[in-house]
């Protein structure tokens, strides 16, 4: 799977795969920050979700320039520039903190994700070139399996070094503080929040130095002419690519909604339930919180993040299982099955008023385990040099993570809709997304069955 024309790509594959873990870390240290920034700056959930708008907006804005840069130079150059922007954005958290304002953090997030856009636009198609074409989707799934490992690290850092160290004052208590007291508390919390970002910025700089000195294969780097118009025309007329961009938009939106708003969903549910289950006592002991007394808002938030970590563990395990299943199932068929299972679980999230809904939300992370790389591999199948610009379109589809969460947040802010908690109702959006993905899987499988692959 990692040999082509007698060349062994194991070492380059391992180095590039490290980048998958790095952007997984960035993604999942950021998801809990919607809640954190909302508390620190006394904002609504809708205003706090601007973090996701800035974060995934950077992916959208930089993907096409990244593709042009990679086509003009090389995959390695794209990876190095991506690492540089990643480090710069993370280190900008220090001056952002000094302004004592929310919006400079959005600028830092935007620059950071411009770097992630370069990394994803470079690394995903680069992995596809590192071996035979018939195993390209499996190879990408294997590399992507290390993405949730980085995500787990991001969640752990967010919970241990940020959420657990922020002031325990609730949103309501903060609203009662006078301006001087609020400013002192805000600055203390911001000191806690920026430290992990500064640390990861320095680590990324070290990675950049490693890439500078390591020689990487030039697969797919033979052609440097842009040929923008003809390339885009070919991509537009490819049904499996065009539909893949839509499916990827829906997938990323659904993923970010499920992982971001599990905090709101779990916190509301646990506070309403009021007691602790044996599982939550175990999670509490692992996370260092006292579960002997009454359920508090802080405990509910930390336990919700604990459930989020369980969800990511399931996602991580699912990536390896899904990669193995691709030996026996066509990518389109697997995507169809996973889309249907995810939609059914989200129905449970919407309908349930008990912990079973939270368990369903955790389960969704397992069923959507290989959706991103599988959609990616299907959409770029037989693209050749066009894969560089094709990758840009699929990375721009990450805009779904910027557009859909604020819509869900707006629904959550309503409190109650149709006699149901608005948090439950808001998961109609991920449900629609998973239906779209299932349809794409079905259409892809039908194209394979009828021999119309590549159309």
**What can be said about the biggest beta sheet?**
2 strands, antiparallel
Count of distinct strands: 4
Sequence of secondary-structure elements: EEHHHHHHHHHHHHHHHHHHHHHEEHH
Task: Fill in the CATH topology.
Answer: Growth Hormone, Chain: A
Strand order of the largest sheet: 1-2
CATH superfamily placement: MFS general substrate transporter like domains
CATH class: Mainly Alpha
Q: Which percent range fits the helix content? A: over 70%
Mean pLDDT: 86
Principal-axes geometry comes out as: globular
Structural class: mainly alpha
Task: Tell me the distance between the termini.
Answer: 25 Å
Number of domains: 1
Q: Name the assembly state.
A: single chain
Unreliable sequence segments:
none
Query: What proportion of the residues form beta strands (DSSP E)?
Result: under 5%
> Based on the structure given, which CATH architecture is correct?
Up-down Bundle
Compute the CA-based radius of gyration: 22 Å
In DSSP terms (H or I, runs of 4 or more residues), the helix count works out at: 23
């Amino acid at each position: 799977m990692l040999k082509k024309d007698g060349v062994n790509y194991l070492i380059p594959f391992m180095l590039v795969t490290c980048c998958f873990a790095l952007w997984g870390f960035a993604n999942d240290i950021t998801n809990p920050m919607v809640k954190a920034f909302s508390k620190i700056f006394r904002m609504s959930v809708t205003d706090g979700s601007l973090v996701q708008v800035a974060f995934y907006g950077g992916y959208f804005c930089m993907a096409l320039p990244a593709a042009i840069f990679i086509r003009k130079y090389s995959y390695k150059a794209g990876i190095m520039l991506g690492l540089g922007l990643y480090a710069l954005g993370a280190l900008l958290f220090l001056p952002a903190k000094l302004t004592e304002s929310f919006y400079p953090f959005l600028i830092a997030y935007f620059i950071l994700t411009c770097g992630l856009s370069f990394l994803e636009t470079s690394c995903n198609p680069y992995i596809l070139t590192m071996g035979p074409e018939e195993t390209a989707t499996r190879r990408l799934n294997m590399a992507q399996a290390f993405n949730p490992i980085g995500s787990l690290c991001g969640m752990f850092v967010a919970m241990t070094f940020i959420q657990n160290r922020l002031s325990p004052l609730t949103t309501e208590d903060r609203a009662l503080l006078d301006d001087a007291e609020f400013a002192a508390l805000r600055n203390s919390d911001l000191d806690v929040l920026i430290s992990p970002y500064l640390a990861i910025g320095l680590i990324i700089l070290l990675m950049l130095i490693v890439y500078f000195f390591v020689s990487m294969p030039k697969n797919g780097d033979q052609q440097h002419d842009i040929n923008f118009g003809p390339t885009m025309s070919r991509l537009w007329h490819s049904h499996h690519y065009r539909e893949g961009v839509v499916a990827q938009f829906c997938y990323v939106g659904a993923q970010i909604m499920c992982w971001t708003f599990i905090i709101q969903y779990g916190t509301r549910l646990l506070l309403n339930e009021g007691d602790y289950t044996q599982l939550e006592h175990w999670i509490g002991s692992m996370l260092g919180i006292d579960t002997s007394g009454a359920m508090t808002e802080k405990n509910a938030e930390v336990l919700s993040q604990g459930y989020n970590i369980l969800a990511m563990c399931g996602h991580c395990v699912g990536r390896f299982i899904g990669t193995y299943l691709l030996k026996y199932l066509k990518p389109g068929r697997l995507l169809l099955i996973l889309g249907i299972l995810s939609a059914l679980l989200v129905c449970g999230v919407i309908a349930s008023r008990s912990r079973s809904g939270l368990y369903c939300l955790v389960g969704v992370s397992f069923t959507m385990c290989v959706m991103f790389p599988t959609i990616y591999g299907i959409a770029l199948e037989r693209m050749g040099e066009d894969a560089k610009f094709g990758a840009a379109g699929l990375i721009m589809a990450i805009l779904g993570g910027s557009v859909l969460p604020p819509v869900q947040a707006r629904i959550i802010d309503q409190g109650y809709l149709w006699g149901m908690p608005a948090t439950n109702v808001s998961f109609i959006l991920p449900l629609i997304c998973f239906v779209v993905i299932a349809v794409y899987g079905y259409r892809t499988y039908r194209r394979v069955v009828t021999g119309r692959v590549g159309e």
